[in-house]
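Input.
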Amino acid sequence: MTQEIFLMNCCLKSIFKMKKHLIYLFIFLAAFQVNAQETVTETTLTKKQSKEIKKLFKNYFKELHKASKDYDKIMDFTYPKLFTITSKSDKVTQIKKQFNNSEMTIKFDKMELNEIKKSIRFNEVTYTKVVYKSETTFHFIKKEKETEANFDSYVYEMFKILKKQFKSAKITRDGENIYLKGTKEILAIQNKEFKKDWYLLDLLKNSKDYYAKFLPDEIATYISSSKF
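Output.
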């Protein structure tokens, strides 16, 4: 073997060793990056983010309080990922029926932001738990041929259902009206993937399977657990 060939082989071996080390390094860095991306971490909002959330709620409550509601505009506040499992038009139809139907109307008498609580980040998306105060009137409508006794029984049953569903709220009844007063939790989500800065999503406990349909599994597990 000539000296030139010997040196060339040495160089090739060195290159192959270097490539091998680089490959291991790239694999390690890639694994580290994936691991970093898949970790749910607690975070502290900036003053700018807190102001943005307050502005979001102010605009959201303003839309809900309008006598003539723009339901499409109200739905624009909803986190768009939800519409991967149900269309926006279906949600608009649903919310219209909730607010006004032949049996009941819903009126938001008062809504105000109470507290911006815990925030977490995952894959560059921020999820913040927000508490707000709410006062709501459920007005029940008596059917033309319905007896007073049947109507009263129906409203009373609805009263019991609401008390069971909203255990921490103060619920009272006055004739055909049921009043609900208390605090509720909701998620404010910041995802730069979408054109608006912040969106809202109902915060439901023990609902991992529901959230996993349109949110990352790590987030679905975290926000539906007691630690959030």
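The domain at 44-223 is CATH 3.10.450 (Nuclear Transport Factor 2; Chain: A,).
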